[in-house]
Amino acid sequence: MAITALHAASSGMRALDEKLNVVANNLANINTHGFKRSRVNFEDLLYQVKRAPGIPNADDEPIPHGILVGTGVKVSGTQLNFASGAVDTTGRPLDWQIEGEGFFQVRTIDDGTEVTAYTRAGNFAQNAVGNIVLGNSAGPLIEPPVTIPDDAIEISVGRNGEVRVRQQGSNTLNVIGQIELARFVNPEGLKQIGKNLFVETDASGAPVAGAAQEDGLGAINAGSLEMSNVDPVRELIDLITTQRAFELNSQSIQSADESLRIVSNLRR
For the chain, which residues score pLDDT lower than 50? Predict the structure, then answer.
């Protein structure tokens, strides 16, 4: 009946509205450091089985096709894409790009609890007491903490994450800390909490932390930043196809509504 068509088309519009929200968020974060685009996955809903395939016909032969009518679609999930973004060379010693797998670790507050959060954004800075913090609106401390001495006149970060500084009156670079990275078995299972941060979930698995270039972790390139991996051309194509699909579903609703109107106006 047309009522089934109404339900299927309306579920399509709801699902496409969610996709539109995701695509719009991808486009909005096209210049966000370390941002990872998301895609929407769909799945069809239950089917009305009016005749199962394979039941015997009058000659006791299995019928090759059944009669199954779908009831629509729903969003099965949003999936993160952790492909590397473009590299922006800044020359700033506290701008770091991870070449390969891994996340920077910072301490932050999530739902009122202090937790370790993870990020691909490498725009770090010093706070008022010299601690290295992430340059977002909250300024969380890097984990493990690294403090730059007050008299440091040069900062150098190696590909292995060693932080070295040259202090006044010295001609040598001395190691003052180690940047550790973390990786996950399933990074797509991480939870996004905003401010360029992710937190661990049961789906992501526990983090494997260590120094850069060890245990499968990537290297750190100082003086560079990883940009968003959003492809504007792809997102615009998704935006257009989503809009067209939404319009087609609305036309299905109009057609189903017209069919119901005709049926209701029938006279015997």
Answer: none
Locate 244 and state its tokens: 């067209």
Over residues 172-185, the pLDDT tens digits come to 999 999 999 999 99
> CB pairs under 8 A, 24+ apart, for 24-27?
24/239, 26/230, 26/235, 27/230, 27/232, 27/235, 27/236, 27/239
Q: Are 213 and 99 in contact (CB under 8 A)?
A: no
Give the up-direction half-sphere exposure of residue 167: CA atoms within 13 A in the CB hemisphere: 8
* Lookup result for tokens 């006791």: 60
| Total H helices, total E strands in the chain | 2, 19
* CB within 8 Å of 81: residues ≥ 6 apart: 36, 37, 38, 39, 229
Cα angle: 164, vertex 166, 172; to 5 degrees: 90
What DSSP string describes 145-160? --B--TTEEEEEE-TT
DSSP annotation string for 2-31:
HHHHHHHHHHHHHHHHHHHHHHHHHHHTTT
What's the confidence (pLDDT) of residue 233? Answer: 97
Beta-bridge partners for 239? none
**pTM, to two decimals:** 0.88
